[in-house]
Structure formats: structure tokens, C-alpha cells
Design goal:
globular, about 100 residues, single chain, five-stranded mixed β-sheet, alpha+beta
Length: about 100
């Protein structure tokens, strides 16, 4: 597992304060994938209801609060495949 993924898992688990009502996957270019579900965040490449894809830089900026997830999506830095409502719910939980 890459350092980017392991640091992101730790940061997501701290931010989420518990689980997430659904299954989401962050696909980070050239690094790997993270699954977020009712058990929290973990490094995995399982199937999910929604997949959010971004570069490591964009993902890091979202986690640190420097990039708004909706703005990243609108500008094409973040792509969403699947349940858009669930993606919005996740963005709210991360904000």
C-alpha cells in the first residue's frame, strides 16, 4: 500500500467519525483505492455504489479542506461514477 493511501485512510477515519451509510470508493490515480462504508475507511478495491476518481494532489486538497469537492467535480478534477446523491452525502461528511 502506498504512503498516500495509508495516510488518506487514517485522515478519512478521523474525519468520518464512524462509518458511512453506503459504499463509496476513492480511486486515486497511480496510488490505489480506498473504500468507505459503515466500517469506516480502508485500502481496498471492492465494488461500491459510487466511485470518485481524482489525482493524488486533488484528493489531498479535498481532505485538507483546500479544495471543495463540488468545485473539484465542476472543474473536472474529480469524476463521479454511480450514485450522485451518495457522492454529495460523502462530500458533506468530508466538509
Amino acid at each position: 500500500m502506498s504512503d498516500v493511501i495509508s495516510q488518506a485512510v487514517t485522515a478519512l477515519n478521523a474525519k468520518m467519525d464512524g462509518g458511512f451509510d453506503g459504499t463509496a470508493k476513492f480511486d486515486i490515480e497511480d496510488e490505489g483505492s480506498i473504500i468507505i462504508d459503515s466500517d469506516g475507511a480502508r485500502a481496498a478495491d471492492d465494488d461500491a455504489e459510487v466511485t470518485l476518481s481524482a489525482s493524488a494532489e486533488t484528493f489531498q486538497a479535498i481532505l485538507e479542506g483546500e479544495e471543495n469537492p463540488t468545485a473539484a467535480f465542476m472543474s473536472g478534477k474529480l469524476t463521479v461514477d454511480g450514485d450522485m446523491g451518495l457522492a454529495m452525502k460523502l462530500a458533506g461528511a468530508l466538509g
